[in-house]
Write a structure and sequence with these properties.
The chain is α/β, with parallel strands linked by helices. It folds into two domains: 179 residues, NAD(P)-binding Rossmann-like Domain (Rossmann fold, 3-Layer(aba) Sandwich), CATH 3.40.50.720; 85 residues, N-(1-d-carboxylethyl)-l-norvaline Dehydrogenase, domain 2 (Orthogonal Bundle). It has an eight-stranded mixed β-sheet with strand order 3-2-1-4-5-6-7-8, with helices on both faces. Helix 1 crosses helix 2. The longest helix has 20 residues. The protein is globular, with a radius of gyration of 19 Å.
Length: 283
């Protein structure tokens, strides 16, 4: 299958890696040439790690990396089978992108998917000429490692689109979970409490960052909430919290943390900035 990924950030790169490892061809689009080049370097580096760990045969490296290319214009992805949007979590920017995509796609059967963490699928689809081919494909960070993918069916999404999306997710060796089109879907609705309650505990002085992370990992979580927020990015995480809170008509249990907003305003975004709740070396 020919896959186009819009956005060459961490999430877009992870989806690209999963796709080329599953023998799909990928075109990565980003407005910035620098980011496109960085993305290709990241994909190459991650594949080399897979070779070193014995997860990818050395003789398959060249053919695998050859399936990933970058493009500078949307017109170059006109004949693709599936477009996955993985850009900033801003409603109007995404909405504008989907209209532009529909205008350039020549493949009438092409599916347009959004990796949004919280926005309504139907609210995007209603603006399109063919809303039935629009779907939510919500990957989790890091996308080339995490096994779950939420498939969100909007009010207009048809079964053909769901079937294609499901088969694609299965081809990646991942687990599809069909979710309803509600704010936060399944995982992010649950996760708001994982993050927000941990932030409240810290704000109230109940425990330290390290203590809270250690305790939650001690009962089975792979990562503590602060480690995970640093991985995702505090700017991204707080934006999703705001979106879910607003869509649930400001229900108190979804109230975003002022502490996380302060970290975001200070540029303490997590791993990508070198410091968040923890400090990270360049290595």
């Amino acid at each position: 299958m020919n896959i186009a990924i819009i956005g060459s950030g961490t999430m877009g790169c992870g989806i690209a890696i999963s796709s080329i490892l599953a023998n799909h061809s990928v075109q990565l689009f980003d407005l910035s040439e620098e980011k496109r080049n960085q993305a290709l370097q990241f994909v190459s580096k991650e594949l080399l790690k897979s070779v070193e760990k014995g997860k990818l045969a050395p003789d398959l490296y060249e053919s695998t990396i050859a399936r990933c290319s970058s493009v500078a214009s949307l017109e170059e992805i006109a004949e693709t089978d599936l477009v996955i949007e993985a850009i900033i979590e801003e409603f109007e920017i995404k909405k504008s992108l989907f209209l532009s995509l529909e205008a350039v796609l020549t493949n009438e059967l092409a599916v347009i998917a959004t990796n949004t963490s919280s926005f309504s699928i139907s609210s995007f689809a209603k603006n399109l000429q063919k809303p039935e081919r629009f779907v939510g494909l919500h990957f989790f960070n890091p996308a080339h490692i995490m096994k779950l993918v939420e498939i969100i069916k909007g009010s207009f999404t048809n079964q053909t689109t769901i079937d294609l999306s499901t088969n694609y997710v299965l081809s990646l060796g991942k687990t599809p979970a069909l979710a309803s089109d509600v704010p936060g879907f399944i995982v992010n609705r649950v996760a708001r409490n994982y993050y927000n309650e941990s932030l409240r505990l810290l704000t109230e002085g109940v425990g330290s960052i390290e203590q809270i992370d250690r305790i939650l990992k001690g009962i089975g979580f792979k990562m503590g909430p602060f480690e995970l927020m640093d991985l995702i990015g505090n700017d991204v995480n707080v934006q999703v919290s705001k979106s879910v809170w607003e869509q649930y008509f400001y229900e108190p249990r979804f109230t975003p943390s002022t502490l996380q907003q302060m970290y975001t305003d200070a540029g303490l975004l997590g791993r990508k900035s070198g410091q968040g709740f923890y400090k990270y070396s360049k290595k």
